[in-house]
Amino acid sequence: MLIIPIRGGITVSTQNTGTAYFSEKMELNHAAVNPAFSLFESIIKENDFAGQYRFMDNQEANRIMNGLINTSDKGMKTILSTKRPDIYIVILESFSDSVMKTGATPQLAKLAKEGIYFENMHANSFRTDRGTLAILSGYPAQPTMSLMKYPKKTNTLPSIGKKLAQAGYGLKYFYGGDADFTNMRSYLVSMDFTDITSDINFPVKDRLSKWGVPDHLVFQRMEEELTEQDKKPRLWVLQTSSSHEPFDVPYHKLNNKVLNAFNYTDDCIGKFVTALKKSQKWDNALVIFIPDHLGCYPETIDNFHIYRYEIPMIWTGGAITGHQKIETYGSQQDIAATLLGQLSIDHSDMKFSKNMLATSIPHFAFFTVPDAWGMAKKDKYVIFNNKNEKVVTKSGNYKSLVPQGKAYLQKLYDDIAAR
Questions:
Q1: Which segments constitute the Sulfatase N-terminal domain (predicted)?
Q2: What percent of the chain has pLDDT over 70?
Q3: Do 22 and 157 belong to one domain?
């Protein structure tokens, strides 16, 4: 009889520290967490992070890493017409370049032609929790763990949310699913997202699918709030979920069930952009569309195909200076530095995040899956299997990428251990 309350419910989420969070003040949230639960969680999650992925001595790893990380904005191309736009980040479940090439996402394709299209963007990982943290905190995903499940460590991370809150922005987060899934609420609140709309804020009749509330209702909720007269500029984040298996959506236009789900969310995107234009908020708006992780289409794809990691990133809205294509290579962790650089907000503490619009720094994409990592630059890429210590997929003059990727992963785990 006690299994359900111990587990924390019957949804996809289990009990975690974020379930106890209730306040905008983190010290009160920490006090609300059961000490016994916190101790038990610490014991089961105790890991020797500094002992993992030891490819080379520390001096050599530091030498290589110093040539890869650079938080400078020097030589940055300016693509916004204002330093304080209203910002809407839409995190798209499982979208990819492969899906866009099918023609199933005409609204997104239209926005790519009208806005700023980053042609060589890559997903950092294979799960939403990893991708969300990479997007919002500029922190790379890991191959065998999810940092979001370690609240004591994520509390030490910088984020777009924290920095924009300090700059006077008002923050909101919209999600149709369970905000406690994979400890997401704990992470979001620690990143200053205290106004969170999730499945519990909708009628029960609207949240009966596996992943909660269908995307069109979540977009509608945000659209209803667009006309609010804010005294602050806004950072609003909306996370979709309907284009996730089992791909059951209240919409039937395409025969392929998977592509139909993407077409449904794409339709929601088009209606949201129309609503934003009608709300008189468009002229000062920056809208960023970015998938949450690597793609799931076609169904036969595996982790060792480079195109699985290739995703679209589109910036649109009245605040952009006009249409253009950005050829720079990057991954989700680079969004934070790229955005904050445009706003002239310091991001020097986000050492893993690179400004994709700065010309004076090295550019590359880095990504991980269990238990492998990959790195891509212009004209070359490599995917490395950690288990058998072999290169699985490669292209171009890839050999220099192998020690670089190894050093990068090693120093990433050093950083995690130090938090």
A1: 86-343
A2: 89
A3: no
Bridge-based pairing of strands 365-369 and 324-331 is unpaired
Identity of the amino acid at 297: Y
- Asked if residue 365 lies in contact with residue 68, where contact means CB atoms within 8 angstroms, the answer is no
Structure tokens at 11: 């949804």
Q: Helix, strand, or coil here: 302? A: coil
pLDDT band at residue 334 under the 50/70/90 scheme? very high
89 & 197 share domain: yes
In a domain, 419, yes or no: no
Mean pLDDT over residues 62-75, rounded?
Answer: 98
Residue 82, CB-side half-sphere exposure with 13 Å CA sphere: 13
Q: Which residues pair with 86 in a beta bridge?
A: 285
Residue ranges making up the domain that contains 352: 76-363
Which range, of 24-38, 78-92, 190-204, 286-300, averages the lowest pLDDT? 24-38
> Could you tell me if 335 and 313 are in contact, meaning their C-beta atoms sit under 8 angstroms apart?
yes
The residues, ordered by sequence, that sit 6+ positions from 141 with a Cβ below 8 Å of its Cβ are 124, 125, 127, 130, 131, 133, 134, 333, 367, 368
Whole-number pLDDT of residue 121: 99
Find out whether 405 and 374 touch, Cβ atoms under 8 Å.
yes
Query: pLDDT above 90 covers what percent of the chain?
Result: 86
pLDDT tens digits, 5-44: 555 555 565 565 656 555 565 555 555 556 654 554 454 4
Are the CB atoms for 94 and 260 separated by under 8 Å? Answer: no
Q: Which residues of 22-38 are buried (b: 16+ CB within 10 A; e: fewer)?
A: eeeebeebbeebeeeee
Annotate 338-373 with DSSP letters as a single string: HHHHHTT---TT-TT---TT-TTS---EEEEETTEE
Q: Report the DSSP pairing between strands 116-122 and 310-316.
A: antiparallel
Q: What is the pLDDT of residues 97-124, one digit of tens each?
A: 999 999 999 999 999 999 999 999 999 9
- Calpha distance 419→152 (Å, rounded): 8
| Domain assignment present for 54 | no
